[in-house]
């Protein structure tokens, strides 16, 4: 079984440690300390993490986030490295891969690409194929609120429809870059957009698409 989630977890922890607690990220309003707290709360406090999806739980999430953000930064980094607690469902390798591979990849790039001297990572074909597989399965969910029709295309010509509608914008790039684009990191994603100029502008300025 692949261990992409574990690899990205450790890389994220290393980057957060190197950057320090006050470095910028691509997450609007968050410094690295906030991002680290988010990762830990998501894994270790399911009673609060539900606030990421349910508005009713948002106050609870905000309170717990404040508590974890106040913890020593080094402690947060160590909690990320060691992973979820013993009885967490994230201990199951299949669930860890399904839930955390994209989570940790995106947040790793949130740290990397917020730096002035960042450069794209060289990702192997196996990892790119794994990301594409996830994109194919979730493209319509992720792109459901796109303001235009949206087609994702790999450089080799493989495509996935993320949103039906007109006018259509085709976004071309490696799966890793398409993923960042769908998660609202449009300004940092290395992709090419093809379509009507007005539609491209609307799509490029959109927030996270359905996430």
Automatic annotation (TrEMBL):
<dbReference type="InterPro" id="IPR034660">
    <property type="entry name" value="DinB/YfiT-like"/>
</dbReference>
<dbReference type="InterPro" id="IPR017517">
    <property type="entry name" value="Maleyloyr_isom"/>
</dbReference>
<dbReference type="InterPro" id="IPR017519">
    <property type="entry name" value="CHP03085"/>
</dbReference>
<protein>
    <submittedName>
        <fullName>TIGR03085 family metal-binding protein</fullName>
    </submittedName>
</protein>
